[in-house]
Specification:
alpha+beta; 2 domains; 8 helices
Length: 427
């Protein structure tokens, strides 16, 4: 286009999104909401500074308005890539009437019965249509559906307790085929959890189930390998590339090509997705990058993601610890407690300190699972944990939404069960 040569670089994203959300609480349909959106995002790189504009306007107008936001000179630059392609994954849920979906949700919630204080079942479906092109001649597009179901319940006995499980996939309605079994699990666990005892406290040997271990990998390690954190000096791993950061059994990957919740065929800078080796045999091999951080740190891009039309930043996708050699009963032989699931927590990528809350757990004696424990937390330092970890054989993933810089994107965390030594206490 004539006149655009004054830019060092420009790109355009066109995004169309459809979302249906349905929630049932205590037998009542609380929300049926359909959201549709369509828009364009324009980026201009000029004099080392980004200009940005969002609006449903034609290319010339959008780029001119983005250029007006180039108000300083800066040091930004980006790696040139070559990327073309199209990917389409057609959803089946658009052909299913809403009343049939509500009927299904009522059946799932009905499994929770009247033995609990309150119940909730939340459903969503989404289709994201994406098109990207830039001044280097790259052009990609995709259409990806996502579906999710969250089942929750409160129960009261010795204490009031909450438990939930979720299914989230880049898939159609078939992904929810295990929903009835998951509801049975929620009912069983929450009733027992309301009668559970407080946890022990102190440094001890702890088996983390795949869900909690996956959260550890994502929160305590994954954020520390995001290229923007590394450049800002806010990562405990900033100066450890090609250095030993874990025992030799540790292999960590980020793989957006896997059909888990963090899947994408191209990132939000038009780069084709591929698996990234982060740690191999305990050695830190790479960080995660956008095109800008890849240029500055001499690596490969492919992890620039954005919520909607916001500015792309470095994000994880499907991040996981690969399998080891230990059977579950071998891990339990060494354990004092066994912790399951996650109720959130916090981590500091700059220091590596973390603190997570498990959904529940068990005391372990002589390799046997004993009393259920509740309101239990786990804390420690990431690199200390990874230097002495025993890794199980059965890898599984847990989906969710990850927040960073006021943006939320779908991700999935994966791990086998692992045995670590950490500080356990109450929440």
């Amino acid at each position: 286009m004539r006149g655009l040569q004054r830019f060092n670089f420009y790109d355009v994203r066109e995004i169309e999104s459809y979302t249906l959300k349905v929630s049932i609480e205590n037998g009542n349909v609380e929300k049926v909401r359909i959201d549709k959106s369509r828009g364009k995002a324009f980026r201009v790189l000029k004099n080392g500074f980004w200009g940005y504009f969002v609006g449903d306007v034609d290319e010339r107008v959008g780029l001119k308005l983005a250029e007006r936001n180039v108000v300083f000179e800066g040091s930004s630059d980006l790696l040139k890539v070559e990327s073309k392609g199209n990917f389409v994954l057609k959803p089946d849920f658009l052909d299913i009437p809403i009343d049939e979906k509500v009927k299904f949700l009522r059946e799932v919630e009905g499994i929770l019965k009247d033995e609990v204080v309150s119940t909730s079942v939340s459903y969503f479906e989404n289709v994201r249509k994406f098109r990207y092109y830039d001044s280097n001649g790259n052009e990609v597009s995709y259409e990806v559906p996502r579906i999710g179901l969250t089942i929750s319940a409160f129960a009261k006995d010795k204490t009031l307790q909450f438990y939930s499980r979720r299914i989230m996939k880049p898939s159609g309605f078939k992904a929810l085929r295990n929903a009835y079994d998951l509801a049975e699990e929620v009912l069983d666990v929450v009733l027992k959890l309301a009668k559970a005892i407080p946890p022990p406290s102190g440094f001890m040997n702890v088996v983390l189930d795949p869900r909690l271990a996956g959260v550890f990998v994502h929160e305590a390690f994954g954020h520390a390998v995001e290229g923007d954190h590394v450049l800002q000096g806010s990562s405990v791993l900033s100066n450890k590339l090609n250095c030993k950061v874990a025992c030799e059994d540790v292999n960590i990957y980020d793989d957006p090509t896997m059909m888990e919740f963090g899947f994408y065929p191209f990132d939000d800078e038009g780069v084709r997705s591929e698996r990234r080796v982060i740690v191999k045999d305990g050695i830190l091999k790479d960080f995660l990058h956008s095109r800008e951080t890849a240029f500055k740190l001499n690596s490969k891009p492919g992890n620039a993601r954005a919520e909607g039309l916001k500015f792309p930043i470095v994000r994880m996708s499907n991040t996981y610890l690969d399998v080891g050699d230990y059977e579950m009963d071998e891990l339990l032989e060494y354990a004092d407690v066994y912790l399951i699931g996650s109720r959130g927590g916090e981590t500091n990528p700059a220091t590596g300190h973390f603190q997570f809350n498990a959904q529940y757990g068990y005391n372990v004696r002589d390799g046997e699972i004993c009393e259920m424990i509740r309101d239990v937390s786990l804390s420690g330092y990431t690199l200390d944990i990874l230097k002495d970890v025993k890794i199980g054989r059965d890898l599984s993933f847990d989906p969710g939404f990850c927040g960073k810089d006021d943006q939320i994107v779908p991700v999935s965390d994966g791990s086998p069960p692992i045995l670590v030594r950490a500080l356990v206490g109450g929440t």
